[in-house]
Amino acid sequence: MASYPVSPLQALQAASRAAPPAASDAFGTLLFAGATGALGAELLRRLAGSHRHAHTRVLAREPMRDGLRGVETCLSPAGPIDEWPVTSAHTAIVAFDPPRLYHDRERALWVPEPADLPALARWLRACGVQTLAIVQPHDQGKLPEALKRGLASLDEQAVVACGFERVILVRSARKPVNATFANPLERLAAWMLSVVRFMVPTSEQPVRASKVAELVDLALRIAPPGVHVAAPELVWQAAQGDMPGVAARWLHAPHVDS
User: Fold this and answer.
1) Percent of the chain with pLDDT over 90
2) Edge-to-edge strand ranges of the sheet holding 91-95
3) How many CA atoms, within 13 angstroms, populate the side-chain half-sphere of residue 139?
4) Which among 103, 104, 101, 129 has a CA at the least distance from the CA of 33?
5) Lowest mean pLDDT among 25-39, 188-202, 237-251
6) Which of 217, 211, 213 is CA-nearest to residue 239?
7) pTM of the prediction?
8) How many Cα neighbours within 13 Å face the side chain of 14?
9) Would the N or C end of the chain have less CB density within 10 A of its end CB?
């Protein structure tokens, strides 16, 4: 095989790069469902770039090549999730973030719907997943107080019943999705209701996708066994500066740097 000379600049750049951990030191396989939208893409970028997992696989509807090094696709068949062939993974992320259809990569990805959650959880558990993190954005100010810190639906209860070692639910706030209106009366009603957004507490305002991804990353590192739910206010508080401290208090875990 022919060899090519390496310039001093290339050698310095290679030496300055932090080497990823060896496959034997990395922690299993990370399986990602919903790597779409600004939030899903940021989660994938951060978690795949950390090299804490030996492999990162993304559920896709068709073959594709991702620009992120070490990210592979895992094709999802067209049939029901319960009939999908079993693969192997240790950790899974499910992010409910609508795809940006002007991104070619996101059009090729499999996008989970909230109704898919119970079947998807059963399939992930059959794949050997021990840790499941679910990132569920909610329109700001619209999540009932009683549901912020607990299981919000029978579907989430069904997920917990699957027997995962750890379930991490992150309820991040988002701006209301733009809607279309069939007539002027609907537009007027929507405008009147939009006034409520000015009454939403600061602690329920949306935060940057990078901050949500950082919190999920920390939770995956330090969360003990059990079910852990982050309310929108906690996500906002974590984004204000002391994320390691907020995460440690939330998870009753040791303080680590983000």
Assistant:
1) 42
2) 71-75, 55-60, 29-33, 91-95, 131-135, 166-170, 226-230
3) 8
4) 129
5) 188-202
6) 211
7) 0.77
8) 6
9) N
Output DSSP code: residue 239.
Answer: T
Of 128 and 181, the structure prediction assigns the larger pLDDT to 128
- Residue identified by tokens 């068949």 is 77
Residue 63 phi, psi dihedral angles, 5° rounding: -60, 145
Structure confidence at residue 108 (pLDDT):
84
* C-alpha torsion 229→232→235→237, nearest 10: -120
235-250, pLDDT tens digit by residue? 999 999 899 999 999 9
**Per-residue b/e over 122-160, b at no fewer than 16 CB within 10 Å?**
bbbbebebbbbbbbbbbebbebeeeebeebbeebbeebe
Which of 24-33, 82-91, 131-140, 146-155 has maximum average pLDDT?
Answer: 82-91
Q: What's the Cα-to-Cα distance from 83 to each of 76, 156, 252, rounded to whole Å?
A: 10, 21, 38
How many CB atoms are located within 10 Å of the residue 105 CB? 17
pLDDT tier, 105 (very low <50, low <70, confident <90, very high otherwise): confident
Cβ neighbours of 119 (radius 10 Å): 17
Query: Treating both helix axes as pointing N-terminal to C-terminal, what angle do 243-251 and 209-222 enclose, rounded to 10 degrees?
Result: 50
Distance CA 173, CA 62 (A): 31
Amino acid identity of 125? R
How large is the average pLDDT for residues 63-72? Answer: 72
